[in-house]
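Exercise 7. Given the components listed, write out the predicted structure of the assembled complex. Treat all entries as one system.
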Amino acid sequence: MKTQVLGIGNSILSDDGVGIHVIECLKAEDIPSGVVLSVGGTGGSALIDMIEECDRLIIVDAIVTGSPPGTIHELSLEDILSVVPIHLSASHDIDFLTIFGLGEEILGKRLPSEVLIIAVEAADITNFSEECTPHVKDAVNKVVRLVKSKLTS
Amino acid sequence: MGKRITISPITRLEGHGKIDIILDDDGNVKDSYFQVVELRGFEKFCQGRPVEELPRIMPKICGVCPGAHHMASSKAADAVYNITIPSTAKKLRELFYNAHISHSHILHFFALAAPDFIPGADADPAKRNILGLVEAVGKDIGIEVIKHRGYAQKIQGIIAGHPIHPVGSLPGGLSKPITEDERAEIEKMGESMVTFARTALKIFDDLVLANKKYAELITGDTYYHETYYMGLVDDNKKVNFYDGRIRVVDPQGKEFALFEAKDYLDHIGEHVEPWSYLKFPFLNAVGWKGLVDGAESGVYRVNSLARLNVADGMATPLAQEAYEKMFSLFGCKPVHNTLAFHWARLIENLFASEEILRLARDPEITSPDVRTVPTETPNEGVGVVEAARGTLYHHYVTDSNGIVKKVNLIVATVQNNAAMGMSVKKAAQKLIKNGAADNTVLDMVEMAFRAYDPCLACATHCLPGQIPLEVRLIKNGKVSRRMTRNLNSQT
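Answer.
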């Protein structure tokens, strides 16, 4: 089974970049073969190009729901109808759900049958910094372990 | 105390924005405020870094127009080192940049603007997006949109090393040339993009202009302001996205100013309002008179229609034909009708596509001579490009080692800030009567600023989560009516 782990966000905007930081950490880990680690951008239609043909897609992104900073949310495609991580919504572009809604016929590629979204509750997405805030920084290692457990399950 | 209608956050718009519409006691629009939140600390983030890092950092300000910041930053860094880049480097940057413009314009029209017309503002909100558009015009068009958006992104990736985070441009030129195979691939994509750009204009003709209701909306008074316009022009005073001088025309279309990027501060002032994080740039020579239009007000507009208004024409034949058709329909120049920004965007997409093809066929484009190594002592420089959304200025000051001391950016959306506020107010005044504001009316108010393709990410950042539309009617400090909706629910 081919799996892609796609981290999205802005690596210079504090907690917004948590998805990117997770991918960078995963690159230093022992990852099963058949797993593709990708650093995506800030979402939108770029995801059309970033998503590879695979069976399972794991997206890591930041989210703001009001939970304590660093809280890790595991979401399905259905879940994001009501709660959308930051870069899976796109007010200027085609958002993630719309991309899936366009379907394989229009996209011209096979979409993954299983999609899991791991979203980390952000505390600060408005100050420029290459570092996350403390609680989100602590969550990075937890997300790395969580993704690894998914990859071996 | 009158009512207040709040539209927050703004749908289909990058950044977190809010519109407050203040009603008087009779329920008619008294005033409106277009507000956004702000990202903080970017200038400090840049200070102390080598200036050559900025062309790689600046694209991360914004997930929507990284290509524009990559180019403006590279040009400012060139200027800091007082470098003239090799001819091939300039052509490759232009090739990259026209692909960036095409990508942005295709997305804006088909994902954001077109759903206002097809299926239209009175359609089910769940259908008022690209899915509803595809349902209305057919899957074949949807396939073409996605394909050509992809081509435009791919060309950027070939030249600048990454389709989303461009890194290839640096002070003095580019880090690498392109191969013959890459050139041939770009040429093939460019041919297809020209055909698609003509199709997009035909769709606009058939489904928007041929519809009496929409034609009246575009040419009517609801979305109309007589202002100054600003944009880059080449030596022949034709539209150019990458380089040239900045030309300003007055509301009658007469040339008001023509200047080099380095002199921008002589021409542009910035007014501050206590209720807005965004500043309000205006023409110094006219002065700030408030959120009003006319020749006595220093408010100017940028973006697609502004570029066509300031130029004497387009530098490519098919785009020139489309340009003449638009001005002929309106029967005047400049065109002051705000919804014509959409039309102008499609004309520019054709121009960008023709430019991609022309540059891909340039015999010099695969030359390995793509960089002049900086040798002069760095100090200060200004870079300007036409971002998809309008004129974009980057201004850097460094020490003699090239370490950044000061950064000043004037982004396109900020320059349209005053005009957007005026357009929203006027549309609201025309459409909201006696406090009546249903979702269709509010969508039509939103259309006023959507025409400017505003991107608030340079001054603000992405919205958290699904983007709802919240409307509150407040009278005497109490919420008398509340409406919310987003793509998936309506209450």
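Discussion: The mean pLDDT of chain A is 89. The interface with chain B takes residues 10-13, 16, 40-46, 48-50, 63-65, 80-87, 89-94, 97-98, 101-102, 105-108, 125-129 of chain A (CB under 8 Å).
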